[in-house]
Amino acid sequence: MTATDIRLKPRRRSARPVWDEEPSLLGKAVKALFLICYGAAIVLPLWAVVATSLASEEALTRAGGIS
Questions:
Q1: Of the residues 3, 11, 23, 37, which has the maximum number of CB atoms within 10 A of its CB?
Q2: 16/13: higher pLDDT
Q3: Contact between residue 22 and residue 14 where contact means Cβ atoms under 8 Å apart
């Protein structure tokens, strides 16, 4: 047997284990919606803090102040 005689197994389409089914379209949509909401819950408060920190005092007063 030479190095060129080695036969590779055909690759599967997915990295999932054989027993793990592909999620349904509804399952994928719910997961995507959850991840978007989760990301927004993290990013939006951070963005508000940064925006408030960078805003001038006049802009904060015009916007109703910090409450």
A1: 23
A2: 16
A3: yes
